[in-house]
Amino acid sequence: MKITSAAAAAIGSPSVLAARVVPVVAVLTLVGVWNRTLPIIVELVVVVLLAASVLAAVHHADVVARRVGDLFGALILAVAVTVIEVGLIITLMISGGGSTSSLARDTVFAAVMITCNGILGLSLMLGALRTRVAEFNPEGTGAALATVITLATLSLVLPSFTTSAPGPNFSTPQLAFAAAASLILYALFVFVQNVRHRDSFLASPPPRRNAADGQDDGDDAHAEIPSVRAAQVSLALLTAALVAVVGLAKVESGTIEETVAAARLPQSVVGVVIALLVLLPEALAAARNARRGRTQVSLNLALGSAMASIGLTIPAIAVASIWLEGPLLLGLGPTQMVLLALTAIVGTLTVMPGRATLLQAGIHLALCAGYLFLAANP
């Protein structure tokens, strides 16, 4: 016998209760540990609270998202994740000084590679395992991929070839142009996705599977739209969780950098860690939708996260660079540009037919694995 979502809400599942308690506990912990030297046990507690706050933030963003609808909901999720990402980047750049001048580039590029290969490949794999062939709308998915590739090229590739400033840097006017172009392209995509051509980004209803097949018909059929009050509470808790994430990241910034240095890993690994942390909830949401046969929603989450990571992070970092010390290195190196170009080509060939098998999923996952390996072993 199934418990309806209304009854579950009244009882209060452990995950929902945790999502409500964690932001409050995290904020109180932040107040208690701010500007203090912490023993190792407390550091571990802070790390656990940091990860839990990220999950809680996306949970509450999802509650608000369900109140406003699927597509606007995906936008809210992407913006929430981007706020966390920008907060982590800026706090680490402030504490690290000149040694973190490439952190924004490393984090944004890591987010692009993880979403366009890791999350996308995982979504296609789960969809193909469920129905042999994962189907999606090539028009909307292709438009999202084209926007991601354009944003990545404008913000991460061109700085390696411009000549107005030495090194892989933009000059101030070039950085302003890249930031404005990124923001405008992202806003245009959001308008097209949510208003002008929203049908191109909507998933068709998944086939119902009965108990005779040994599978249920998915939890989405039983999901209810949250009330206005529930959405307002989640909005307040979302704000608290975001404050906690940024503050606790500041507390742990020195430990993160010391750990990476002690392991003799490249500084770019810090960017990978940030991207993995902030994208974990998106990966879980994408996998959940793919298992339910909603491949289109999974791809919307993956590519929307990549797009927000560039379209919102680069403008925010450009503004923050006014008071940040040291240069802002944005240009990718040769190895990274090769991986980005390969991702663009493979991604285009994957989305054009509107359907994918385990082979396409395996190719994207192999690209993600190759990127992660080369990030630690350049």
TrEMBL record:
Residues 43-193, 234-374 form the Sodium/calcium exchanger membrane region domain. It is a multi-pass membrane protein. This is Ionic transporter y4hA. The chain crosses the membrane at residues 37-59, 71-96, 108-129, 141-162, 174-192, 230-249, 269-287, 299-323, 329-351. Its main location: membrane. Keywords: Membrane, Transmembrane, Transmembrane helix. InterPro entries: Alkaline_pH_Ca-Antiporter (IPR052946), NaCa_Exmemb (IPR004837). The keyword NADP does not apply. It is found in: Membrane. GO terms for cellular component: plasma membrane. One of its GO terms (molecular function) is sodium:proton antiporter activity. Residues 201-221 are annotated as: Disordered.
